Amino acid sequence: MPKKLKDARNEWDIGICEAPCHEPLTCLVGMVCCPCYIWLQRMEIYEGRANKEYKCCGGAYCFDNDMFCGRSMPGLCLACEVCLCPWCALYGNRYLIQKKYSIKNSCFDACLIQLACLCSWLGCLVTILSYCGLVPKQWSKAIRKIIYIMDVIYLMFAGCLLAQQQHEMEKHGPGSPPTSIEMDQM
Hints:
Elements: E1 10-11, H1 19-22, H2 24-32, H3 34-46, H4 50-53, H5 74-84, H6 86-101, E2 103-104, H7 107-131, H8 137-172, H9 180-185
Parallel strand pairs: 1-2
Helix pairs in contact: 2-3, 2-8, 3-5, 3-6, 3-8, 5-6, 6-8, 7-8
């Protein structure tokens, strides 16, 4: 899971479940073109400063981005990030927005995010077990169907997260002043 912000004071303008009603087009595009939308949103978050500020997964995890390609090729690194680790990239965007605007997750949002992570890990484990032949053949077809359903639900959830994040960015507008937390870090 991504790092938690300790000093966040504000709440999201809309909840994850409200996002499809407030931002239906963003939710749909985020669901259908998830990696592309994550990339566009990250570039919008950086506001043209990606060469100076790029960190793998937005710095939400303990990765040292200079181990990979880091700031020398942020566009290429971000493209690899959203294609190979879209969920980490998505939560990286969320972390950057939360950090910029001092936003904390509600308990419900945090539970939904934890549940999504748990389901993805479970899906991964079941997929690995079935590829290794450790799942009985008669269950394979049913397991594949369940994993497809989980993927669709997860993409719908990604669309909701992206819509919530985009709504917050549009609420604050481009070039909005940093929060008091950002001022303290400068």
